[in-house]
Amino acid sequence: MAKELTSRSENYSQWYQDLVIKADLAENSAVRGCMVIKPYGYAIWEKMQAELDKMFKDTGHVNAYFPLFIPKSFFSKEADHVEGFAKECAVVTHYRLKNDEENGGVVIDPSAKLEEELIVRPTSETIIWNTYKNWIQSYRDLPILVNQWANVVRWEMRTRLFLRTAEFLWQEGHTAHATKEEAIEETEKIINVYADFAENFMAVPVIKGLKSENERFAGALETYSIEALMQDGKALQSGTSHFLGQNFAKAFDVKFASKDGKEEYVWATSWGVSTRLMGALIMAHSDDNGLVLPPKLAPYQVVIVPIYKKDEQLAAISEKVDEIIAKLKAKGISVKYDDRDTRKPGWKFAEYELKGVPVRLAMGPRDLENGTVEVARRDTLEKNVTEIENVDIYIENLLEDIQKNIFKKAADYRASHTTKVDTYDEFKEVLKNKGGFISAHWDGTPETEDLIKNETKATIRCLPLEYEKEEGVCIRTGKPSKRRVLFALAY
What we know:
Helices cover about 35% and strands about 30% of the residues. By secondary structure, the protein is α+β, with helices and mostly antiparallel strands. The protein folds into three domains: about 25-70 and about 130-285, Bira Bifunctional Protein, Domain 2 (BirA Bifunctional Protein, domain 2); about 295-415, Rossmann fold (3-Layer(aba) Sandwich); about 420-490, C-terminal domain of ProRS (Translation Initiation Factor IF3, 2-Layer Sandwich), CATH 3.30.110. An eleven-stranded mixed sheet has the order 3-9-10-16-13-12-11-24-27-23-22, sandwiched between helices. The protein has a five-stranded mixed sheet with strand order 18-17-19-20-21, sandwiched between helices.
């Protein structure tokens, strides 16, 4: 099974496509640009969702749900916002079909035209801030810390499973605050939550930073992001948190009475991560044999495969496996016992290797006699034999080690693919032959950023929050610069 994958060195893009499909994560749908997330892929997303949801609630947020449809007039109220999303919006113009008497089938009923067209949400700031106007009168109503889990539509022409699809799943937080300071604190708090999740659950090291003016969210005063590096040397924006200032409050006239009785506009944030995280997870860790999943997000952390010839052998093995499963579950370890008689053990080994199950146990009659079990770890493909008696403790420690090892491997790759450059020639050479993050001086102007992007396709991924003050000159214009920023080719 695994051999059917294109190798990463041969064609990284095709390897990714092959892996998503052959590992049963997702497939293209009948609707162009949309995907079907299959049960195994959705199980990983559910794990992500559950952990993130807990992190949001632990920081004081609550969930709600807002309409899928947004009146077109709402988009006209915040100029930067509408300009940023206008080309990606799907629009509902009619509300009814009718039978086509001449040709059969159905046609749009021309008499059912909507008085005002509805936008299928590409993001929810406008509908939510129109709603908040009714929720907020006084400082006592603040802060509002709301998140929603939803689907959104952005009409993408060039799509790739999980990374860029016309419809995708995400969460979007929308908060309202009495002060600028409180809103900025919220924006920074969430980017730290995202970084924590990426590193401690996805095992993906990320860089926290500010987006340049060109790369900011449409309608935001500041956008914070986490940037991850994939194995092909390209960057992937993996989460964003936006300080919206009072732009949306002014657009929708959302005011509150302050403690000293003054009428003031509310301060806002919004933030989100999407099923794009699935793409990050796949591309950061997986190899030519298939998926490599961090144990904390694997749908099942352990799979057990019996090896037998006779039914009596299977019965004896299954009895012992039941004991192992009980021990593992008592430690909170998820486990699957694959005793199907329709597939041979070798086929099962290949399947679970392809699907990235962190640990595989194999048990045959000889193992039963010896009181042992074979343990294979997916990240390094190493095999060991351990005693059944203490297998739960062994696997508990092994899963922790796998989680740490996967992170270390990704961190080491990023470290070796982060390069300081001081000249434009050096910049282009590294970009072409090495890839990864390039740390370079930039004069701070959108014009220069556009120039570099047009000439090299590289973009400023972020202005890292952690950096050294360093006088220098812009690699493209030679103008003064006070700090380095991170460039990369990106998804």
